[in-house]
Amino acid sequence: MKIFFVTGNKEKYREVKEILEGFEVEQIEVDLPELQGEPDDIVKEKAKLAADKTGKTVFVEDTCLCFNALKGLPGPYIKAFVEKIGIPGLYELANKYEDRGAVAVASIGFCEAGKKPMVFQGKVKGLIVPPKGSTRFQWDQIFMPEGYDKAFAEMRIEEKNKISHRRLAFEEFRKWLETQ
Amino acid sequence: MKIFFVTGNKEKYREVKEILEGFEVEQIEVDLPELQGEPDDIVKEKAKLAADKTGKTVFVEDTCLCFNALKGLPGPYIKAFVEKIGIPGLYELANKYEDRGAVAVASIGFCEAGKKPMVFQGKVKGLIVPPKGSTRFQWDQIFMPEGYDKAFAEMRIEEKNKISHRRLAFEEFRKWLETQ
Question: ipTM of this model?
Answer without folding.
Answer: 0.92
